[in-house]
Amino acid sequence: MNKHALVAAIKEKKSYLCVGLDTDITRLPKHLQSSPNAVVKFNKAIIDATKDACVSYKINTAFYEAQGLKGWEAMQETLHYIPRTHFTIADAKRGDIGNTSAQYAKTFFETLPFDAITVAPYMGEDSIRPFLEYENKVTIVLGLTSNKGAENFELQKLYGGKPLYEEILTTVASWGTPDNLMFVVGATQAKSFLHIRQIIPDHFLLVPGIGAQGGSLKEVSHFGLNSDGGLLVNASRAIIYASSGEDFADAAQKIALNYHEEMRPFL
Ligand SMILES: O=C(O)c1cc(=O)[nH]c(=O)n1[C@@H]1O[C@H](COP(=O)(O)O)[C@@H](O)[C@H]1O
Fold first, then answer.
1. Which residues contact 94 (CB under 8 A, 6 or more apart)?
2. Is 3.20.20.70 the CATH number for 3-266?
3. Is there an atom of ligand 1 within 6 Å of 56 CB?
4. From ligand 1's centre to the CA of 7, what distance in Å?
5. Model confidence pLDDT, tens digit, residues 211-262
6. Which end of the chain has the least Cβ crowding within 10 Å, N or C?
7. Collapsing DSSP states into helix, strand and coil, what is residue 49?
8. What residues form DSSP beta bridges with 183?
9. CA–CA gap between residue 130 and residue 126 (Å, rounded)
10. Is-catalytic flag, 93?
């Protein structure tokens, strides 16, 4: 699915919810833990339960890579199970010298055919170009992240007085278009959304940090939405671990529907 199809899905469904499949093998409900392929069973149940409320799924690759070969297989099976009507994100946070980034792009755009990947901008233009060369794929660059460590570098002022993250948004935006580039902005950074929208009015923002990290969906929506929707708000733990019992999928569905209901009036 490309960005235009995503915009259509958001408008039709009146949802900009992205469900995060950060599936931690140690947090699976007890009744699944001994079952073979437990991660895939869990993910399939979560997808079945939440697909009507959301337009996107984000697979955080760390939770799968940590399991070795079995984890990569689970990631692949999960990706293929996600309906084509949903925008798929590999949250892999890659980026390296050009020829290495080209291999990362191949991994997450071809071998595993995700629609988008998260990328760290630290190594600059040649580390991001190989991702942008793919037509109909989206590169999501870390802008202002949700974590405390954002203060260490992203919010530090450069010599001109501008914070580093602003320089990243402006410069990276000039390497692509709002069709092939999005930016990560954490929901915990709500007070910066108005300003960020002045710098990049047209780009989609992937917004993690509601739910477990305490960000406000209302604030983010108020300041972040644009005429395309322009937001993908992610929640992972708050949805997928809404219950640790046999009712985990029903509980996940309830939370996802609540987010959807909160989003509806904004569109
Ligand atoms: O790129 C991300 O998705 C990301 C960026 C960021 O600034 N903060 C952030 O939490 N994330 C990811 O978003 C998800 C948030 O998970 P929950 O806090 O459980 O909703 C995790 O997969 C994080 O790795």
1. 101, 104, 108, 117, 118, 119, 120
2. yes
3. no
4. 22
5. 888 899 999 999 999 999 999 999 999 999 999 999 999 999 999 999 999 9
6. C
7. helix
8. 141, 205
9. 7
10. yes
